[in-house]
Specification:
heterodimer; A: 210 residues; alpha+beta; four-stranded antiparallel sheet; three-stranded antiparallel sheet; 6 helices; B: 416 residues; five-stranded antiparallel sheet; four-stranded mixed sheet; 8 helices; elongated; disordered C terminus
């Protein structure tokens, strides 16, 4: 009964466009979507697998965390990495992976900042993310039934970037118990106190919720 | 020798745990080309000449060779052997048996794979003057080899690398040499060595090229036009574009820019790796488009990831059914707002009007405005079905129904 209007719409579209009906939603844009008894499960395990094959670390030992705590990446840090093209390609893929993986979002955000001139130490950080992904290939987000209330959480690390001393905003927005949006972003201006950094974060988050 | 006592293994194998390496044993008397750089005085001399393989050096890791026209003996490591070729075919048996039966090569000492040549000693030349003159005449090849029997021997003194201490000792060894018609010029050519093989590069293209190239995704139109399957694929594509009325042939206006086009070849495979079909696609060279002339705005809106997740979260909450649709050749049906002139597709030019160009009515892949043209067409069509964009993201379309069923559309996917 519920499908009738859908089929009408598909028919109307087929008259106008050359359309192929792929059935119920299961795989699109590199994301797998599976129905579970409680809701939906979103993952990009095939994308991770392809990425690991592409970066040739299929047989490596997995790692438990995506980055080291308090590990600062400097702009000019020793030797430049020999193949910046590969660096950019892998980091771009990591960025796309954050669609279903908030856990690597911060690490990916950090290595993204050195796309222009990657160093060997930066690539080591990228490899650590890949090793973490190897151990957690099948992680994803599950969407379940709950209340439809928007909740937003935010934090800032004050002067977290050693290169320009700017603070980083981190935020997650939940719809009920389902995370729908998250981001890490370096603030535009330098904050002279943690309170100020946190205040900026709050205003950014509320703008995002709106 | 393998014996039942040693479980049918040779003593060498029992002692060392592996069978002896015999790869450096070559057939005595075969033709070979040693590296002669060390023996040369100037760098313009030949790096190698055709010699006869004699045996192995005792104190060095190396082989001994004899060069007939110059009556020289060489000793060196780096050699290329031609074991099918013998300079003196009728002598092969005598020479090899003589060498093998020499006392220094008895089975008891042979486990170390070097044959001693301390006193072995070999070959050549008493009548060199006679055959040098006769070499130049082609009639020599008819002369029976036995008539030119040469007996000689050379004492190799291994203490010097340039081991040319020649002393005649006819009792040690008797070798009968037949002299092939030799060109006296020292340069060695392929035809002189009897090599008539074609170059490997050429053979691979000519012999197995056609089948392999249908299995490869070719990069250029020139290589693809020779392969039947690719030609068929290109014909199909051009036919499809013609039936859609993608372009019309017009003369190029003076102040307009001409955009190039090229062929892209792709092999579509099934999930098990078998080839489903060969696909040729004509694409525009977007990089040769001029702003203002060929395109204006090119931004094609795409859906925000947060909106996709929001819709999925809502779908999970309300337990909506989700459907996925795919628009085939989405970019090929869109009507271009701008006037774009493209050169005729390579290989399918109009023979009567080779100077005309294609004025594009519909968009092609890789044109700069293709995504935007698609978005325009899609967004203009959807309101007729009762869908409206939401305020926060213009890529999400919503339709409200009485039955509390919402339909949401995004740019790339369709969720219902």
């Amino acid at each position: 009964m519920r499908l009738v209007p859908i089929i009408q719409v598909i028919k109307a579209l087929t008259t106008e466009f050359d359309i192929k009906d792929l059935g119920s939603l299961h795989y699109f844009l590199g994301k797998q979507i599976t129905r579970t008894p409680t809701g939906l499960f979103l993952s990009q395990s095939k994308y991770v697998e392809d990425l690991l094959i592409k970066s040739k670390i299929v047989d490596a030992k997995p790692c438990d965390t995506p980055c080291l705590p308090y590990h600062r990446l400097l702009k000019e840090d020793g030797e430049p990495y020999s193949n910046p093209k590969v660096y950019r390609s892998i980091v771009g893929a990591l960025q796309y992976l954050t669609f279903t993986r908030p856990d690597i979002a911060f690490s990916a955000h950090r290595v993204c900042q050195f796309m222009q001139n990657p160093m060997v130490s930066h690539f080591t950080a990228v490899k650590r993310i890949l090793l973490y992904l190897k151990g957690t290939m099948h992680f994803g987000i599950s969407y379940t039934r709950g209340d439809l209330q928007l909740k937003a959480f935010s934090d800032a690390n004050w002067a977290g970037d050693p290169n320009d001393k700017r603070s980083t905003t981190g935020l997650v927005i939940f719809l009920g118990n389902n995370p729908i949006s998250w981001s890490f972003k370096k603030q535009q201006t330098i904050s002279r106190s943690l309170t100020k950094a946190e205040y900026r974060t709050l205003s950014f988050t509320s703008a995002e919720v709106d | 020798m393998s014996t039942p006592v040693l479980l049918h293994k040779s003593p060498f194998e029992m002692l060392f745990g592996s069978s002896p390496v015999l790869t450096h044993f070559k057939i005595f008397g075969c033709a070979c080309f040693p590296f002669l750089r060390l023996y040369n005085h100037t760098k313009l001399q030949a790096k190698t000449i055709k010699c006869v393989f004699l045996g192995y050096a005792t104190k060095y890791k190396g082989y001994l060779f004899y060069h007939v026209p110059t009556t020289r003996l060489f000793l060196y490591r780096h050699v290329i052997f031609y074991e099918q070729q013998f300079l003196y075919p009728n002598v092969l048996h005598t020479s090899s048996t003589t060498l093998l039966s020499s006392p220094s090569c008895s089975p008891s000492t042979c486990h170390v794979p070097i044959v001693t040549t301390e006193n072995i000693v070999v070959t050549s030349i008493t009548s060199s003057s006679s055959h040098h003159t006769s070499n130049n005449t082609p009639a020599l090849s008819i002369v029976s080899p036995s008539s030119q029997s040469i007996t000689a021997s050379i004492q190799a003194s291994p203490s010097t690398l340039v081991a040319l201490d020649i002393s005649f000792n006819p009792d040690n060894l008797q070798v009968v040499l037949s002299i092939p018609p030799l060109n006296l010029h020292p340069m060695q050519t392929k035809s002189k060595s009897g090599i008539t093989k074609r170059k490997a590069l050429l053979t691979s293209i000519h012999d197995s090229g056609a089948t392999e190239m249908s299995l490869m995704e070719l990069a250029t139109y020139k290589s693809a036009i020779k392969v039947y399957v690719w030609l068929q694929a290109m014909k199909e594509e051009v036919h499809a574009l013609h039936t859609q009325g993608t372009w019309s042939l017009v003369p190029l206006p003076a102040d307009r820019n001409l955009v190039g086009c090229k062929w892209i070849f792709k092999i579509k495979r099934h999930s098990d790796g078998f080839i489903a079909r060969h696909k040729a696609r004509l694409v525009g060279k977007g990089f040769s488009q001029e702003p203002g002339l060929d395109y204006g705005d090119i931004f094609g809106p795409v859906v925000k990831p947060a909106i996709v997740r929001l819709v999925l979260a809502l779908a999970a909450h309300f337990n909506w059914p989700l459907r996925q649709l795919d628009v085939k050749n989405a970019f090929l049906h869109d009507i271009l707002q701008e006037e774009v002139y493209m050169s005729q597709p390579p290989g399918f030019e109009d023979l009567q009007h080779p100077h005309l160009v294609c004025k594009l009515h519909k968009s092609l892949y890789r044109l700069k405005q293709a995504p935007r043209a698609w978005n325009d067409r899609f967004t203009q069509f959807l309101p007729s079905l009762g869908f409206a964009t939401i305020y926060y993201d213009s890529s999400l379309f919503v339709k409200h129904l009485v039955m509390r069923l919402w339909c949401c559309f995004s740019m790339w996917m369709i969720l219902l």
